[in-house]
Amino acid sequence: MLEKVVLELGWEPAAEEIEELREGLALYQVKLESGMKERGEQGEGVVYITDRPDAVREKMGDEACILLFLTEENRKLEWGNIPYAVESLEGLDGDFLGKVYQRHRGEPWLILETERLVVREMEEGDLEALYRIYDQRDAADFLDGLSADRDEERAYIKDYIEKVYAFYGFGIWMLEEKSGGRCVGRAGFHMREGFAYPELGFIVAQEEQRKGYCLEACSALLEFGFRELEFDGVQALVAEGNRASEEVCRRLGGTPAEKICWKGKKCLRFVWEA
């Protein structure tokens, strides 16, 4: 859990910027400090906002959680191992910086909650749940299927978390029951080559179907996509004959836009627009 944010900059930000950041952190019970202390004094739960990441790592160690502050000088350098960067302190708060720290720790982000479900990022511990969810006919129609090799799939999960979630800010997430913590399916957004709109994808484990989980999750996700992710539109592809998925899209208010053939499969394309 994020406890402290340390500003380690080669210049002094304006007093009003610091105060705004302090207030944005205080709402989440996170402290703000200026300048690094001795290595042993910082401990866990710290994010360093810095334009000099090498200096932070030299003093605090390679495992320090860093949010890179971009400047004309450092933006010319390679910082591929630092996933997040900003150009201003404006708008930073405890929610965003807490998520930066979670990503550093490999902890899944909570995306949203519905009456019965938690929608969260996937984590490596979900491996067996994924095989249970995908153990059904036509499971991989329009979502990537799973590898028969569990070690290969585990590596794919790690890569997906590090690259897809971090790059796009969205992806296909896990649907977890609030009552028992059981993963009942997946849903979210992904980009399909050749289409402008992000695509809504969903799958619910066979034994969890006909409980309304898919409608409950996808309704909340569409609202989230338009409100928080600022999508202009969303699409979904439904394989011809998949009446259950077609009914879900219609009940979610999707408009049947066209019939197309995707990689040899006839399907109906639904669209939602902002």
TrEMBL record:
- A Gene Ontology molecular-function term? acyltransferase activity, transferring groups other than amino-acyl groups
> Which InterPro entries would you find in this protein's record?
Acyl_CoA_acyltransferase (IPR016181), GNAT_dom (IPR000182), N-acetyltransferase (IPR051531)
N-acetyltransferase domain boundaries: 117-274
> Which SUPFAM superfamilies would you find in this protein's record?
Acyl-CoA N-acyltransferases (Nat)
Could you tell me the superkingdom of the organism this chain comes from?
Bacteria
Which Gene3D superfamilies does the entry link to? 3.40.630.30
What protein name is recorded for this chain? N-acetyltransferase domain-containing protein
Q: Report the source organism.
A: Eisenbergiella tayi
